Amino acid sequence: MTDRLFIFDTTLRDGEQSPGASMTKDEKLRIARQLERLKVDVIEAGFPASSNGDFEAVRAIAQAIKGATVCALARANDRDVSRAADALKGGESTRIHIFLATSDLHMEKKLRMTREQVFEQAKLSVRFARNLAGDVEFSPEDGYRSDPEFLYRVLEAVIAEGATTINIPDTVGYAVPELYGEFLLDLRRRIPNADKAVWSVHCHNDLGMAVANSLAGVKIGGARQVECTINGLGERAGNCSLEEIVMAVKTRKDYFKLDIGVDATQIVPASRLVAQTTGFVVQPNKAVVGANAFAHASGIHQDGVLKARDTYEIMRAEDVGWATNRIVLGKLSGRNAFKQRLKELGIEMEAEADVNNAFARFKELADRKSDIFDEDILALVMDEAVTAEHEHYRFISLSQHSETGERPQASVAFAAGEVQHHASSDGNGPVDASLKAIESKVASGADMLLYSVNAITSGSTESQGEVTVRLQHGGRVVNGVGADPDIIVASAKAYLAALNKLHSKTERVAAQG
Ligand code: KIV
Ligand code: ZN
């Protein structure tokens, strides 16, 4: 006998809380469509009360997605819950997710509320939400560090008010597998109406145990929903990785005895899309989605795999979507083939002018690079962020000179609103010179926290370089991503993309603030 494990993806909500990972509405929609292809059960699309931008993103996702439940986060108050319900209105299948801290530490120091006040607010907010939605999830934030006696009362009350899913967050990643599993089991045994709700796990990775804790919550605790993110994206050390959970449960079905609805062949495309969109690069030795996850370097391993794959492979690369890394288009591909591929990648372009513009850029790229992969097309579309009319800073052109023994020089032309700038500088290297040239005009005063370069598609120096720049200014952290076969140009684009994000001063309320 098997039963079903629900996969709740929170890349677009908890993942997005990672400093610098915030996404635009279009980017979130593109990832939501990939999650739909991945066939996750629930997509947590955002936190509508946190900003107007997130409200609009949740609304667009709720309208567009079919076949997965679209969920919106809310604090336990009427305003947040109404915002979540409004954003979800008209969606095919929707859920409101309410959270309220229950640990003594959070109640006393953060909320400045008594146990009784939290108990009442939890009940009232779920009651209010159930008048607006049939599917309501409740999370006692910092649940794992909460007094179990208090949790019994709160959780019994919210289930009685109609909460359909109870999620137990290990908000700070403090749990260890056996104890977390037993904690959940105890709650399910002690709460009289526990069987009226689906139990869920939500683990952070501060001690590197988010996946192990989540699996223990399933195996020992009897949870039937796992909250996770693509690539384990999330604040601090991140959330539980979706790809690891899915492949652990599928590969060890003999042990877990659970069914999962996810189409694993969409895992690698999802991982790439999230990495490219956020600029959070996947480490090469990351399980399932790292570039080395299926590479056998040692002679003994290679010999074994050639004789029989299962000597060293417990999963097949193609089963998690590595085979989809194929050449899709080239120089001779026409506009229709390009448009079709955009559609398959979940990229919606309504205006014909936008398609024409993207196609022209594709042709330019195909002249410089013979094989065009999906990642190149995604990068090209994301590049719009630094060339599109509506962006404040737009890249125009760059020239640079570097020679052994001489200090490199760069000149960059870029637009800031209606004004065109031509700036020059020298620097330690051509990248340094280019970014200094831009900064000499913009004077953002931002601190650079990260600069990284990656090949978009592995295997050859013909690949486009993808650069991530992380800037910090006035308490905000933003990531900018730029791609080009010339990594100096990619760096300038990434810097301008980050400046655009700093320029669009969207303030957000943090879910765990
Ligand atoms: O980690 C956490 O506690 C959360 C809640 C908002 C569910 O993300
Ligand atoms: Zn979380």
Task: Write up this protein.
- There is one protein chain.
- The protein is of the alpha/beta class and 513 residues long.
- It is 40% helix and 21% strand.
- The protein has helices at 25-38, 52-64, 78-88, 104-111, 115-132, 148-160, 177-190, 210-219, 242-251, 253-256, 267-278, 299-307, 335-344, 352-368, 374-382, 384-387, 430-442, 487-503; strands spanning 3-4, 6-9, 42-46, 69-75, 94-101, 136-141, 165-170, 198-203, 225-228, 258-259, 327-329, 372-373, 393-401, 409-416, 419-426, 447-455, 465-473, 476-484.
- The strands form five sheets. An eight-stranded parallel beta barrel has the order 2-3-4-5-6-7-8-9, surrounded by eight helices.
- α2 (52-64) crosses α3 (78-88).
- The longest helix has 18 residues, at 115-132.
- It is globular, with a radius of gyration of 24 Å.
- The site of 3-methyl-2-oxobutanoic acid has 10 residues, from β6.
- 3-methyl-2-oxobutanoic acid binds next to β6.
